[in-house]
Automatic annotation (TrEMBL):
Subcellular location: Cytoplasm, Cytoskeleton, Phragmoplast
GO biological process, one term: pollen maturation
Segments forming domain GED: 523-614
Record-linked SMART domains: DYNc (SM00053), GED (SM00302)
Residue ranges occupied by any Dynamin-type G domain in the UniProt entry: 32-301
Presence of the UniProt keyword Cytoplasm in the record: yes
Protein's UniProt name: Dynamin-type G domain-containing protein
KW Hydrolase (keyword) present: yes
A GO term from the CC aspect: microtubule
Primary location recorded for the protein, binned into one broad class: cytoplasm
Length: 614
């Protein structure tokens, strides 16, 4: 079986590590909460501090009136070999050893003031103190602020409830052993500590009762009913303590001498002599240490189960946020390319329909482009008045004889030029959709979230590529429009009857001048013919423009969005590659914290396995 020293010492070590990592809260039960501890509870002036000093064998706690303990003090006692020097260490000052226990008291006061100020406020942030001495047993105690019934000057009215809530937050945990301190010269039934212990531990299986100040009880009275369990029974025996008197404190009587004086008191007491072997601070320390060791052994399976569960959860989170990357340039380049491919997969899923967004491109072709084509001002351009104006200007001084071919060409060219607006708008609309899909793909690529610099570089490179694709697409669609102007479909016009509409014979009328040879119907016919041709061109462009846009923009985005970026990355030096993989500082801190916690849990599991079953 494991020795008491190794087992309790191991728990002390784990508790210290938990405190360093802040692992004493959060969802579910933390490892800190799973570890058995002893919480010292008592009202103000109950002798709580004197009991702790008696257990330690040193005078080291702040004293005074009112609330002296204003922060929880986690006191870990480590028994050392006989003849070794006593010293203390604070977790907030790990490299400093305190051999002077008056300096320990001063450090507790200063560290308390650092959080609470010099007011009488309290804080639930614990102070962690370890004492190494041959005169102690292996034990962990938590000294909590004394319970009070009224607020004193300088304290808020809520102080009574605040202290009780703080104390309750410790003692209500199922793995907390309660050391309930009650002065023997007061009625135990009214003891603040016993009252609270009864509420959180009604069966009394976690509570140890301590009666202090036995030596100053009224003459003719004693505490036997309490110490022998008749007055208030607990599952564990009551222990009587004789504190140092104020005179002894003022004279700075040595704590070892005070222990000897306490033993003599019980051994020579007519009331308590028969209980002497089970009274006093030394017995209390051994009793608590033995019980703590027993509880720890009972809790080992659940502690190990919690550790294993925590290890699995930490590994899962590390996998999610990413493991640390290697530092050599080859590994860094490989990591960058893998991250680029991960982004590229998400981007293609958006385009191909695996993720939403790609359908917006079809919406541009199916709704936005047809709507823009319908809004083109052909009615105004091919109005009878404008047709007559254009045809007349094209004829010049010599009116056309049969068909106004130059007029036709000018009307067609002017109409076709209107298609350039919708063509360019289609290119820009698809470009906007692709840019938005790049943005969404960056945010949805889980692997990139830990590398904001690389994510920004990929986004910039992708957008630059999209700009190049847009420029090429714009040139292509404008060429398609210009092609329609550069060569007209002759067969279309050969099928048209271009002869002027014949008017009814009017032999009585004299021949009309040449300017009146063509009526409005003639120009309406020309406008109608041009409109029919433009409708044919519109149908052609409605089909060919999407093909050009997809070929130049969507297809290229799928095939070569990051090709130029790949070439650039391949030429970068190691330092620049490392800069691209610069992570979010908060993520790096989170990973470092998780790594430390994982190391703590694994070491705790190994240590428990090494000592628990010896």
């Amino acid at each position: 079986m494991a020795t008491m020293k190794s087992l309790i010492g191991l728990i002390n070590k784990i508790q210290r590590a938990c405190t360093v990592l802040g692992d004493h809260g959060g969802e579910g039960m933390s490892l800190w909460e799973a570890l058995p501890t002893v919480a010292v509870v008592g009202g103000q002036s109950s002798g709580k501090s004197s009991v702790l000093e008696s257990v330690v064998g040193r005078d080291f706690l702040p004293r005074g009136s009112g609330i002296v303990t204003r922060r929880p003090l986690v006191l870990q006692l480590h028994k050392t070999e006989e003849g070794t020097t006593e010293y203390a260490e604070f977790l907030h000052a790990p490299k400093k050893k305190f051999a002077d226990f008056a300096a320990v008291r001063k450090e507790i006061e200063d560290e308390t003031d650092r959080i609470t100020g010099k007011s009488k406020q309290i804080s639930n942030i614990p102070i962690q103190l370890s004492i190494y001495s041959p005169n102690v047993v292996n034990l962990t105690l938590i000294d909590l602020p004394g319970l009070t019934k009224v607020a004193v000057d300088g304290q808020p009215e809520s102080i009574v409830g605040d202290i009780e809530n703080m104390v309750r937050s410790y003692v209500e945990k199922p793995n907390c052993i309660i050391l309930a301190i009650s002065p023997a010269n007061q009625d135990i039934a009214t003891s603040d500590a016993i009252k609270l212990a009864r509420e959180v531990d009604p069966t009394g299986e976690r509570t140890f009762g301590v009666a202090t100040k036995l030596d100053i009880m009224d003459k003719g009275t004693d505490c036997l009913d309490v110490l022998e369990g008749r007055s208030y029974r607990l599952q564990h025996p009551w222990v009587g303590i004789v504190n140092r008197s104020q005179a002894d404190i003022n004279k700075r009587v040595d704590m070892i001498a005070a222990r000897r004086k306490e033993r003599e008191y019980f051994e020579t007491s007519p009331e308590y002599g028969h209980l002497a072997s089970r009274m006093g601070s030394e017995y209390l320390a051994k009793l608590l240490s033995q019980h703590l060791e027993t509880v720890i052994r009972q809790k080992i399976p659940s502690i190990v189960a919690l550790i294993n569960k925590s290890i699995d959860e930490i590994n899962a989170e590390l996998d999610r946020i990413g493991r640390p990357i290697a530092v050599d340039s080859g590994a860094q380049l490989y990591t960058i390319l893998e991250l680029c491919r991960a982004f590229d997969r998400v981007f293609k899923e958006h385009l191909d329909g695996g993720r939403p967004g790609g359908d917006r491109i079809y919406g541009v072709f199916d709704h936005q482009l047809p709507a823009a084509l319908k809004k083109l001002p052909f009615d105004r351009h091919l109005s009878t008045k404008n047709v007559q104006k254009v045809v007349s200007e094209a004829d010049g001084y010599q009116p056309h004889l049969i068909a106004p071919e130059q007029g036709y060409r000018r009307l067609i060219d002017g109409s076709i030029s209107y298609f350039k607006g919708p063509a360019e708008a289609t290119v820009d609309a698809v470009h906007f959709v692709l840019k938005e899909l790049v943005r969404k793909s960056i945010s949805e690529t889980e692997e990139l979230k830990r590398f904001p610099t690389l994510a920004s570089d990929i986004a910039a490179a992708a957008n630059e590529a999209l700009e190049r694709f847009r420029d090429e697409s714009r040139k292509t669609v404008l060429r398609l429009v210009d092609m329609e102007s550069s060569y007209l479909t002759v067969e279309f016009f050969r099928k048209l009857h271009l002869e002027p509409e014949k008017e009814k014979p009017n032999p009585r009328n004299a021949p009309q001048p040449n300017a009146d040879l063509y009526s409005d119907n003639h120009f309406r016919k020309i406008g109608s013919n041009v409109s029919a041709y433009i409708n044919m061109v519109c149908d052609t462009l409605r089909n060919s423009l999407p093909k050009a846009v997809v070929y130049c923009q969507v297809r290229e985005a799928k095939r070569s969005l990051l090709n130029f970026f790949y070439a650039q990355v391949g030429r970068k030096e190691k330092e620049k590659l490392g800069a691209m993989l610069d992570e979010d500082p908060q993520l790096m801190d989170r990973r470092a914290t998780l790594a430390k916690r994982l190391e703590l849990y694994k070491q705790a599991r190994d240590d428990i396995d090494a000592v628990a079953w010896k």
